[in-house]
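User: quick one, sequence for these C-alpha coordinates?
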Protein backbone atom coordinates (compact mmCIF):
# COMPACT_ATOMS: atom_id res chain seq x y z
CA UNK A 1 0.00 0.00 0.00
CA UNK A 2 1.30 3.51 -0.81
CA UNK A 3 1.77 5.98 2.04
CA UNK A 4 -1.58 7.64 1.27
CA UNK A 5 -4.43 5.66 -0.26
CA UNK A 6 -7.77 7.26 -1.11
CA UNK A 7 -10.85 5.05 -0.65
CA UNK A 8 -14.41 5.86 -1.73
CA UNK A 9 -17.04 4.04 0.35
CA UNK A 10 -20.70 3.68 -0.58
CA UNK A 11 -23.20 1.60 1.38
CA UNK A 12 -26.82 0.51 1.47
CA UNK A 13 -27.66 1.27 -2.16
CA UNK A 14 -31.14 -0.27 -1.96
CA UNK A 15 -32.14 -0.21 -5.63
CA UNK A 16 -31.99 3.59 -5.89
CA UNK A 17 -30.46 4.01 -9.32
CA UNK A 18 -30.43 7.80 -9.38
CA UNK A 19 -28.62 8.03 -6.05
CA UNK A 20 -26.12 5.32 -6.93
CA UNK A 21 -25.17 6.92 -10.24
CA UNK A 22 -24.79 10.30 -8.53
CA UNK A 23 -22.69 8.78 -5.73
CA UNK A 24 -20.32 7.10 -8.16
CA UNK A 25 -20.02 10.31 -10.17
CA UNK A 26 -19.19 12.27 -7.00
CA UNK A 27 -16.62 9.69 -5.93
CA UNK A 28 -14.92 9.93 -9.32
CA UNK A 29 -14.93 13.73 -9.06
CA UNK A 30 -13.28 13.61 -5.64
CA UNK A 31 -10.82 10.99 -6.83
CA UNK A 32 -10.03 7.61 -5.31
CA UNK A 33 -7.63 4.72 -5.57
CA UNK A 34 -10.03 2.01 -4.35
CA UNK A 35 -13.81 1.68 -4.23
CA UNK A 36 -15.56 -0.25 -1.46
CA UNK A 37 -19.27 -1.04 -1.77
CA UNK A 38 -20.53 -2.06 1.68
CA UNK A 39 -23.46 -4.11 0.45
CA UNK A 40 -27.26 -4.08 0.47
CA UNK A 41 -27.56 -3.42 -3.22
CA UNK A 42 -31.29 -4.16 -3.40
CA UNK A 43 -34.68 -3.98 -1.58
CA UNK A 44 -36.67 -0.83 -0.77
CA UNK A 45 -36.19 0.64 -4.26
CA UNK A 46 -37.30 -0.24 -7.77
CA UNK A 47 -34.16 0.28 -9.90
CA UNK A 48 -32.86 -3.25 -9.72
CA UNK A 49 -31.04 -3.55 -13.03
CA UNK A 50 -29.83 0.06 -12.96
CA UNK A 51 -28.09 -0.41 -9.62
CA UNK A 52 -26.58 -3.79 -10.48
CA UNK A 53 -25.30 -2.48 -13.80
CA UNK A 54 -23.83 0.67 -12.23
CA UNK A 55 -21.99 -1.32 -9.56
CA UNK A 56 -20.75 -3.87 -12.10
CA UNK A 57 -19.45 -1.08 -14.34
CA UNK A 58 -17.73 0.67 -11.44
CA UNK A 59 -16.09 -2.48 -10.14
CA UNK A 60 -15.01 -3.47 -13.63
CA UNK A 61 -13.60 -0.03 -14.34
CA UNK A 62 -12.00 0.77 -11.00
CA UNK A 63 -11.61 -2.52 -9.16
CA UNK A 64 -12.45 -2.66 -5.50
CA UNK A 65 -14.61 -4.69 -3.17
CA UNK A 66 -18.29 -5.58 -3.08
CA UNK A 67 -19.13 -6.59 0.49
CA UNK A 68 -22.09 -8.87 1.21
CA UNK A 69 -24.87 -7.23 3.23
CA UNK A 70 -27.92 -8.80 4.81
CA UNK A 71 -30.07 -7.66 1.88
CA UNK A 72 -27.70 -9.47 -0.47
CA UNK A 73 -27.49 -12.63 1.61
CA UNK A 74 -31.28 -12.92 1.79
CA UNK A 75 -31.49 -13.16 -2.02
CA UNK A 76 -28.77 -15.82 -1.98
CA UNK A 77 -30.93 -17.64 0.57
CA UNK A 78 -34.13 -17.26 -1.46
CA UNK A 79 -32.33 -18.69 -4.50
CA UNK A 80 -31.35 -21.67 -2.34
CA UNK A 81 -34.90 -22.14 -1.04
CA UNK A 82 -34.19 -20.73 2.42
CA UNK A 83 -36.97 -18.28 3.30
CA UNK A 84 -37.24 -18.48 7.09
CA UNK A 85 -35.69 -15.07 7.65
CA UNK A 86 -37.86 -13.33 5.07
CA UNK A 87 -41.01 -14.89 6.47
CA UNK A 88 -40.36 -13.23 9.84
CA UNK A 89 -40.14 -9.73 8.38
CA UNK A 90 -42.93 -7.09 8.39
CA UNK A 91 -45.44 -7.37 5.56
CA UNK A 92 -44.34 -4.20 3.78
CA UNK A 93 -40.73 -5.35 3.77
CA UNK A 94 -41.63 -8.83 2.54
CA UNK A 95 -43.55 -7.22 -0.32
CA UNK A 96 -40.53 -5.14 -1.30
CA UNK A 97 -38.35 -8.26 -1.25
CA UNK A 98 -40.87 -10.22 -3.31
CA UNK A 99 -41.13 -7.32 -5.78
CA UNK A 100 -37.33 -7.39 -6.14
CA UNK A 101 -37.01 -11.17 -6.34
CA UNK A 102 -39.62 -11.30 -9.12
CA UNK A 103 -37.55 -8.88 -11.21
CA UNK A 104 -34.10 -10.23 -10.37
CA UNK A 105 -32.19 -12.99 -12.10
CA UNK A 106 -31.96 -14.48 -8.66
CA UNK A 107 -30.19 -17.65 -9.70
CA UNK A 108 -27.17 -15.74 -11.01
CA UNK A 109 -27.16 -12.88 -8.49
CA UNK A 110 -24.55 -14.51 -6.26
CA UNK A 111 -22.23 -14.89 -9.26
CA UNK A 112 -22.69 -11.32 -10.47
CA UNK A 113 -19.98 -9.82 -8.26
CA UNK A 114 -16.81 -10.99 -6.47
CA UNK A 115 -18.58 -10.84 -3.11
CA UNK A 116 -16.49 -10.60 0.06
CA UNK A 117 -17.54 -10.80 3.69
CA UNK A 118 -14.99 -8.13 4.58
CA UNK A 119 -11.95 -6.34 3.19
CA UNK A 120 -8.88 -4.94 4.96
CA UNK A 121 -6.97 -2.00 3.54
CA UNK A 122 -3.95 -1.29 5.67
CA UNK A 123 -5.15 -0.75 9.25
CA UNK A 124 -8.81 -0.38 8.23
CA UNK A 125 -11.40 -3.18 8.20
CA UNK A 126 -14.46 -2.81 5.97
CA UNK A 127 -17.61 -4.90 6.54
CA UNK A 128 -21.32 -4.39 6.07
CA UNK A 129 -22.54 -4.18 9.66
CA UNK A 130 -19.78 -4.71 12.25
CA UNK A 131 -16.46 -6.48 12.91
CA UNK A 132 -18.09 -9.61 14.33
CA UNK A 133 -18.21 -13.00 12.65
CA UNK A 134 -20.25 -13.23 9.44
CA UNK A 135 -23.27 -13.31 9.21
CA UNK A 136 -23.78 -11.25 12.36
CA UNK A 137 -26.00 -8.30 11.38
CA UNK A 138 -25.96 -6.52 14.72
CA UNK A 139 -26.35 -2.75 14.46
CA UNK A 140 -23.73 -0.34 15.78
CA UNK A 141 -26.23 2.10 17.31
CA UNK A 142 -25.03 2.77 20.86
CA UNK A 143 -21.76 3.81 22.44
CA UNK A 144 -21.56 0.38 24.12
CA UNK A 145 -21.87 -1.22 20.66
CA UNK A 146 -19.07 1.01 19.41
CA UNK A 147 -16.85 0.23 22.39
CA UNK A 148 -17.33 -3.51 21.85
CA UNK A 149 -16.55 -3.10 18.17
CA UNK A 150 -13.38 -1.18 19.03
CA UNK A 151 -12.24 -4.02 21.24
CA UNK A 152 -12.82 -6.58 18.50
CA UNK A 153 -11.06 -4.42 15.92
CA UNK A 154 -8.03 -3.99 18.18
CA UNK A 155 -7.92 -7.73 18.90
CA UNK A 156 -7.90 -8.35 15.16
CA UNK A 157 -5.04 -5.92 14.61
CA UNK A 158 -7.16 -3.20 12.98
CA UNK A 159 -7.12 0.45 14.00
CA UNK A 160 -10.36 1.44 12.26
CA UNK A 161 -13.59 -0.16 11.08
CA UNK A 162 -15.92 1.12 8.38
CA UNK A 163 -19.45 -0.26 8.54
CA UNK A 164 -22.84 0.62 7.06
CA UNK A 165 -26.12 -1.14 7.82
CA UNK A 166 -27.91 1.40 10.03
CA UNK A 167 -28.12 4.04 7.26
CA UNK A 168 -26.83 6.82 9.54
CA UNK A 169 -23.51 8.53 8.85
CA UNK A 170 -21.20 8.95 11.84
CA UNK A 171 -17.55 9.04 12.81
CA UNK A 172 -16.66 7.65 16.24
CA UNK A 173 -13.19 8.66 17.32
CA UNK A 174 -11.74 8.28 20.80
CA UNK A 175 -13.24 6.60 23.83
CA UNK A 176 -16.91 7.48 24.02
CA UNK A 177 -16.62 10.36 21.54
CA UNK A 178 -18.67 10.88 18.42
CA UNK A 179 -17.25 13.27 15.85
CA UNK A 180 -20.11 15.01 14.06
CA UNK A 181 -18.85 16.02 10.64
CA UNK A 182 -20.54 18.66 8.56
CA UNK A 183 -21.69 16.97 5.37
CA UNK A 184 -19.37 17.82 2.48
CA UNK A 185 -16.12 19.62 2.91
CA UNK A 186 -15.11 18.97 6.52
CA UNK A 187 -12.36 16.42 7.06
CA UNK A 188 -11.58 14.69 10.32
CA UNK A 189 -7.94 13.57 10.62
CA UNK A 190 -7.87 10.80 13.22
CA UNK A 191 -4.60 9.57 14.72
CA UNK A 192 -4.80 5.77 14.71
CA UNK A 193 -1.93 5.47 17.17
CA UNK A 194 -4.14 6.95 19.88
CA UNK A 195 -7.57 5.49 19.17
CA UNK A 196 -9.57 2.87 17.34
CA UNK A 197 -12.01 4.58 14.98
CA UNK A 198 -15.43 3.46 13.74
CA UNK A 199 -16.91 5.13 10.64
CA UNK A 200 -20.35 4.79 9.05
CA UNK A 201 -20.63 6.34 5.56
CA UNK A 202 -24.43 6.50 5.79
CA UNK A 203 -26.71 5.24 3.06
CA UNK A 204 -26.74 6.14 -0.62
CA UNK A 205 -30.09 4.54 -1.38
CA UNK A 206 -32.23 5.02 1.73
CA UNK A 207 -30.73 7.43 4.28
CA UNK A 208 -32.22 7.57 7.76
CA UNK A 209 -30.13 10.31 9.34
CA UNK A 210 -31.88 13.33 10.79
CA UNK A 211 -32.22 15.85 7.98
CA UNK A 212 -32.21 13.11 5.38
CA UNK A 213 -30.00 13.03 2.32
CA UNK A 214 -27.78 10.41 0.75
CA UNK A 215 -24.14 10.31 1.81
CA UNK A 216 -20.89 8.53 1.07
CA UNK A 217 -17.50 8.59 2.75
CA UNK A 218 -14.18 9.58 1.27
CA UNK A 219 -11.20 8.24 3.22
CA UNK A 220 -7.48 8.81 3.02
CA UNK A 221 -5.57 5.99 4.70
CA UNK A 222 -1.95 5.93 5.74
CA UNK A 223 -0.04 4.11 8.44
CA UNK A 224 -1.01 6.31 11.36
CA UNK A 225 -3.78 8.67 10.22
CA UNK A 226 -7.25 8.12 8.83
CA UNK A 227 -8.80 11.19 7.20
CA UNK A 228 -12.58 11.05 6.76
CA UNK A 229 -15.01 13.23 4.86
CA UNK A 230 -18.76 12.58 4.76
CA UNK A 231 -20.07 13.81 1.43
CA UNK A 232 -23.65 14.68 0.48
CA UNK A 233 -24.93 13.02 -2.70
CA UNK A 234 -27.16 15.28 -4.77
CA UNK A 235 -29.78 13.62 -6.99
CA UNK A 236 -33.47 13.93 -7.90
CA UNK A 237 -35.11 12.55 -4.75
CA UNK A 238 -38.59 13.49 -5.98
CA UNK A 239 -38.12 11.39 -9.11
CA UNK A 240 -37.12 8.42 -6.97
CA UNK A 241 -40.18 8.84 -4.75
CA UNK A 242 -42.39 9.15 -7.84
CA UNK A 243 -40.97 5.87 -9.15
CA UNK A 244 -41.74 4.18 -5.83
CA UNK A 245 -45.30 5.50 -5.87
CA UNK A 246 -45.79 4.35 -9.48
CA UNK A 247 -44.59 0.80 -8.76
CA UNK A 248 -46.75 -2.32 -8.68
CA UNK A 249 -46.45 -2.63 -4.90
CA UNK A 250 -49.55 -2.03 -2.77
CA UNK A 251 -50.35 1.53 -1.62
CA UNK A 252 -49.39 0.91 2.05
CA UNK A 253 -46.00 -0.45 1.02
CA UNK A 254 -45.40 2.35 -1.49
CA UNK A 255 -46.24 4.95 1.15
CA UNK A 256 -43.98 3.28 3.72
CA UNK A 257 -41.05 3.21 1.31
CA UNK A 258 -41.63 6.83 0.27
CA UNK A 259 -41.78 7.95 3.91
CA UNK A 260 -38.06 7.35 4.37
CA UNK A 261 -37.37 10.24 2.02
CA UNK A 262 -39.40 12.83 3.93
CA UNK A 263 -37.23 15.74 5.11
CA UNK A 264 -35.94 15.12 8.60
CA UNK A 265 -36.96 11.47 8.66
CA UNK A 266 -35.16 9.34 11.22
CA UNK A 267 -37.50 6.36 10.98
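Assistant:
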Amino acid sequence: MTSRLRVAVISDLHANGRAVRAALQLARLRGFDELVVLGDLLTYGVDIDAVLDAVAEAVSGHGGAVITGNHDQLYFDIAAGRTEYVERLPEWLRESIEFTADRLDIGSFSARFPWEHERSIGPVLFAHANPFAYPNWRYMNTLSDIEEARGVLAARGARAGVFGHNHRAAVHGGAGAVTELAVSGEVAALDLREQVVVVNPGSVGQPRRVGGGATLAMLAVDKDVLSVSIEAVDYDVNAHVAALMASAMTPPTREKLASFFATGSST
